[in-house]
Specification:
By secondary structure, the chain is an alpha/beta fold. 42% of the residues lie in helices and 14% in strands. The chain has a single domain, classed as Rossmann fold. The chain is globular and about 55 Å long. It comes from Hermetia illucens (Black soldier fly). InterPro entries: AB_hydrolase_1 (IPR000073), AB_hydrolase_fold (IPR029058), Lipase_euk (IPR025483). Belongs to the AB hydrolase superfamily. Lipase family.
Length: 380
């Protein structure tokens, strides 16, 4: 417990300390503004889902090159792939290597708060979890990217919830497996069996109370824009690793995250932690019957996922512990690799923001891309 307080106050001090001019500016810039500032070709695209949400997709454009679709985690946005700057941002790195980079934004985050008929002030706008993101947002974005570029397949790289929503899509809409050259899952999250995150475990314990009071007071959006956000979001959710945290860039991280999500997304994760499964949203036995024609929500069939999946995991990841990742690997229909980061303290957020993420993770991602591209070419 003492460790929690020490880290929290250290981070609070870092958040309030004087910052470099560029860092202060980057904390306020949007994803397209960041891309443009550092001299990369930026584009903004609008994607409409089958259920009417308008998603903003950001592109580091390299027309004619193989597209890669990057999908962020919960409470995050497209900014996560570039906010660390050209030296560490995975989006920039992959573009420099010759790829066409597309960065999605989930419904409900700061870039995707539009709908054909609903307003974010309507509670019905927020009636979604990562299930709807998986069956609607990801397919719409994939189809848009492929239609815009003329390619038949793309690479998919997801972090955290970006992996959860992919597993939903690829199991519930299995035709999309044929549009994926490779899926690389950074800190993959499916069932929570051995979860250690006190943040999610708290929600799991108080599911009914959180659901009741959020409904009672009309709180539909989950956003932690407060003084403790930089401490809580980084460490209480994903694990401690002070050595990999770039304190200089902390104001930028805090400026872009949290980017917004629905309360229902958090409740759904809480259900996974309570029931130790990977199933659709549980409305209670009575409403489940009308929703699913069953008293219990159906679980996702991971064997239907035939796209090549590579799992990247870490021993100090409280949201994706090794036991859960190993079980996920066994359950997938076409698991092609499982890579443990060779650094014991690496945590959930180090995959995208860690000081040594380029050496410990990103280079491995690139080698997998090349390997599966060669395999794809050999088929044709």
């Amino acid at each position: 417990m003492l460790k929690y307080f020490v880290v929290t106050f250290t981070l609070l001090f870092a958040c309030k300390a004087a910052v470099d001019k560029d860092v202060a500016e980057d904390a306020l810039l949007t994803t397209p503004q960041l891309i443009k500032k550092y001299g990369y070709p930026d584009e903004t695209h609008q994607v409409e889902t089958e259920d009417g949400y308008i998603l903003e997709v950001h592109r580091i454009a390299r027309p004619g090159a193989q597209p890669i679709y990057l999908q962020h985690g919960n409470l995050d946005s497209s900014g996560t792939w570039v906010l660390m700057g050209p030296n560490l941002g995975l989006g920039y790195y992959l573009w420099e290597l010759g790829y066409d980079i597309w960065m999605g934004n989930n419904r409900g985050n700061r870039y995707s708060k539009k709908h054909k008929t609903l307003s974010p002030s309507d509670s019905s706008f927020w009636d979604f979890s990562w299930h709807e993101i998986g069956i609607n947002d990801l397919p719409a974005t994939i189809d848009y990217i492929l239609g815009h570029t003329g390619f038949e397949k793309l690479h998919y790289i997801g972090h955290s919830q970006g992996t959860t929503s992919f597993f939903v899509m690829a199991s519930e809409r299995p035709e999309y497996n044929d549009k994926i050259i490779s899926m690389q899952a950074l800190a993959p999250v499916a069932s929570f069996i051995d979860i250690k995150s006190p943040y999610i475990l708290y929600i799991a314990t108080w599911l009914e109370a959180v659901d009741y009071w959020s409904t009672m007071f009309g709180v539909n959006e989950f956003s932690a824009n407060d003084e403790l956000a930089c401490a809580n979001d980084l460490f209480l959710i994903g694990g401690f690793d002070q050595a990999q945290l770039n304190y200089t860039m902390l104001p930028v991280i805090n400026g872009h995250t949290p980017a917004g999500a629905s309360v229902k997304q958090m409740l759904h994760y809480g259900q996974l932690a309570r029931y130790k499964n990977f199933c659709q949203y549980d409305y209670g036995w009575y409403l489940n019957f009308f929703q699913y024609f069953s008293y219990f929500p159906p679980c996702y069939d991971l064997k239907k996922i035939t796209a090549p999946v590579i799992l990247h995991h870490a021993t100090n990841d409280w949201l994706a512990p090794s036991y859960d990742v190993n079980q996920l690997f066994e359950d997938l229909g076409n698991p092609r690799g499982k890579y443990l980061v060779p650094y014991p303290e690496f945590n959930h957020f180090d995959f995208i923001w860690g000081i040594d993420s380029r050496v410990l993770v990103h280079n491995k991602i690139v080698s997998v891309l090349k390997e599966l591209e060669q395999e794809e070419k050999s088929k044709n």
